[in-house]
Specification:
Layout (H helix, E strand, L loop, with lengths): L2 H12 L26 E13 L4 E14 L2 H4 L12 E2 H4 L5 H14 L4 H12 L2 H4 L15 E7 L11 H11 L18 E2 L33 H4 L2 E2 H18 E4 L2 E7 L36 H4 L7 H9 L5 H4 L6 E10 L2 E10 L3 H12 L2 E7 L4 E7 L3 H8 L8 H20 L5 H11 L8 H25 L18 H22 L9 H4 L1 H6 L1 H18 L4 H11 L16 H26 L1
Helix pairs in contact: 1-9, 4-5, 11-13, 14-16, 14-17, 16-17, 17-23, 18-21, 18-22, 18-23
Protein name: CRISPR-associated protein
């Protein structure tokens, strides 16, 4: 189905919530941003709250900021320069004869046409027609100046014990909708395939809060080539029913505010088409470690893994793909993932200009395709990583894929994340990672290259820990790249493992192993001398040169290791390990001094972790003995 059809379908399932303003997370205030706006309505930020009685007399006037849901017309919803009043709540210049008699007369004429015998509406009509808000403000110690011309005004009408609230009155909302859509005649179908009663050409804005004036639909450009060449007029180019437009735009706005992720001018929305109120349990922007809390250990099926995903992700030396695959496919957790059997909708919106909002990506995934796409990503990009656990207040080791935020930080070196350049990079990267995860696209080369060039310059980092985290994230991305490449060429046997492959004879992989061996050996000597934390090893210092010219740099590094070899009595175990790696080089590969490919990263990381594992085993045996 198309985006418009899905939005209309979602609107049908959530329309009962229209006009009702939910409370914020802590329940202390109303959060109008997350409200579903009813047809024929919009929102208005107000500065003045006016309390009146049933005779229209002003009882109180307060200066307080709030945003309310208000009735509107097609013209008033998208008004710019031309004066068009809203039907009920509006700016002070439309409600005070002292500011603008013409605008106030237009407002009163429109309100008179639909107020009927509603007591609250008639009280507001009498108040505006008989009183000047600015002149009576002094009675309530409120100063109103010319600068307050565009200040929004909210009315409250006190009638006995009746609720004085007007902006949230369902009867008034229903009365306006009934008036707006009364006496309609069907004129065919609009461009979305819906019944066409009242075609409109003025469309809502404020779909994404950071792009307040950006419109998704527009045909107001009659001088350029928005529609010229294909249609004679904008009416031919854009046939949309007013109520349909309102439903599509308000539903999309509701989804952005409730399920959207905002980055700069971009909004990413992911939701279930049939169950839009439920936030997806699996967020593609999160890392594998974030999924751990979603699954309990109530696993009762014989094929299920013993550990739930929270335990499995922090375990070591287990069959990652098998365990992760079983858990995500629902073994023992079917109830927690059953919502993903529904179609999932992924929409990315961005403002090309301040007035134009575009759908830059749209994808509908049927049944379990959503979960399967995330599963493949987290299996392909799995690598031993570290994540800071806020609850445990420490870094936790796990095996899986990194979250999008960590990928962006790894690829872009910047301390100021509020800069325009960083925000632009972040939104473009998120969009392309979404396309890669769900569209089968390859990882963007600019991200891969950026991570490779950054992590092969460890001396550019302030802290070794930050460098190592980025290094492993780069390995995760390059592993996925090599797997995707092998999959496209039907070379499944050439996939990369996250663990050391002792027989792999790729030149760059082997050079990575050599550098890791040198790094761990020197670090061990420095540790025994009690100075391991005082400086980086020569292997780390020379990494940038090693990547550019591995053969000649290895010779330089070996000379620098000679004093450490002597202090360690020749370190036969280290030299034996180096000899084992050297024996795997194909003829002429070791002497090849060309720059190393990113496969070097994987060799380095795997050998480094294997060396550390062996050292821990040796230490444990020593303690036991």
């Amino acid at each position: 189905m198309s985006l418009s059809n899905n939005l209309l379908l979602i609107n049908e399932s959530v329309h009962n919530a229209a006009g009702k303003i939910p409370r914020s997370g802590d329940g202390s205030t109303l959060d109008i941003r997350k409200a579903l706006i009813p047809p024929g309505h919009t929102t208005l930020p107000t500065l003045l709250t006016l309390g009146v009685n049933e005779n229209g007399e002003i009882l109180r006037l307060l200066r307080e900021k709030q945003t309310i849901v208000i009735p509107c017309t097609e013209s008033s919803m998208g008004r710019t320069i031309k004066p068009v009043p809203h039907p009920l709540f509006d700016q002070l210049q439309y409600l005070d004869l002292h500011f603008d008699k013409e605008k106030t007369s237009m407002y009163l004429e429109q309100l008179a046409a639909w107020k009927g015998d509603n007591v609250k509406l008639n009280a507001i009509y009498r108040c505006v027609s008989e009183h000047s808000i600015s002149e009576e403000a002094a009675r309530f110690n409120v100063e109103i100046t010319e600068k307050d011309r565009k200040a929004g005004v909210c009315f409250e009408v006190e009638i006995g014990l009746q609720n004085s609230d007007v902006s949230n009155d369902p009867d008034i909302q229903a009365q306006w909708i009934s008036y707006l859509y009364h006496d309609r005649q069907k004129k065919g179908k609009d461009m979305f395939g819906e019944d066409l009663y009242a075609p409109i050409l003025n469309f809502p804005k404020k779909i994404v809060s950071v792009n307040g004036n950006a419109k998704l639909l527009s045909a107001n450009d009659s001088t350029n080539f928005t529609y010229r060449g294909r249609f004679a007029s904008k009416e031919e180019a854009l046939q949309v029913d007013g109520e349909t437009s309102q439903k599509i735009h308000s539903t999309l706005q509701w989804l952005v505010n409730n399920h959207g992720t905002i980055t700069d001018t971009q909004a990413i929305v992911i939701c279930s088409v049939k169950n839009p109120n439920e936030k997806p349990k699996l967020d593609p922007q999160e890392g594998s470690y974030d999924f751990g809390s979603l699954f309990s250990s109530d696993v009762d099926e014989p094929e299920a893994p013993r550990n739930d995903i929270a335990d499995a992700l922090t375990a070591t030396n287990f069959q990652y793909a098998q365990v992760f695959s079983k858990v995500l496919r629902g073994y023992g957790n079917a109830n927690k993932l059953k919502k993903h059997a529904d179609p999932m909708m992924i929409v990315i919106l961005d403002a090309a200009t301040s007035g134009r909002l575009s759908v830059t990506y749209y994808r509908e995934l049927s049944k379990d395709e959503y979960v399967e796409s995330i599963l493949r990503w987290h299996v392909d990009a799995a690598w031993p990583l570290k994540m800071y656990d806020k609850e445990k207040k420490k870094f936790v080791a796990y095996e899986g894929a990194p979250p999008f935020a960590d990928i962006i930080s790894c690829a872009y070196d910047v301390s100021d994340r509020s800069s325009k350049a960083y925000k632009r990079f972040a939104k473009n990267t998120k969009k392309q990672l979404i396309e890669c995860m769900f569209g089968g696209e390859s990882l963007p080369r600019f991200i891969l290259d950026a991570t490779y060039h950054r992590v092969t310059k460890p001396m550019g980092y302030d802290a070794p820990g930050a460098w190592l985290r980025d290094f492993e994230i780069a390995c995760s991305l390059w592993k996925k790249h090599y797997i995707d490449d092998a999959r496209k060429q039907n070379k499944q046997e050439d996939t990369i493992s996250m663990y050391l492959e002792p027989t792999r004879n790729d030149r760059d992989y082997l050079y990575g192993r050599l550098l890791a061996l040198a790094d761990r050996f020197e670090n061990g000597v420095l540790y025994k001398q009690g100075i391991s934390d005082t400086r980086p090893t020569n292997a780390v210092k020379l990494m940038s040169n090693f990547v550019a010219k591995p053969f000649t740099t290895w010779g330089t590094l070996w000379k620098q290791l000679m004093p450490y070899l002597k202090s360690a009595n020749g370190a036969p175990w280290f030299q034996n390990s180096v000899d084992e790696v050297m024996a795997l080089f194909k003829e002429g590969d070791f002497e090849d001094n060309r720059a190393l490919s990113p496969l070097f990263l994987l060799g380095y990381s795997c050998q480094r972790r294997e060396s550390m594992r062996k050292a821990q085993e040796a230490s444990q045996k020593s303690k036991e003995n």
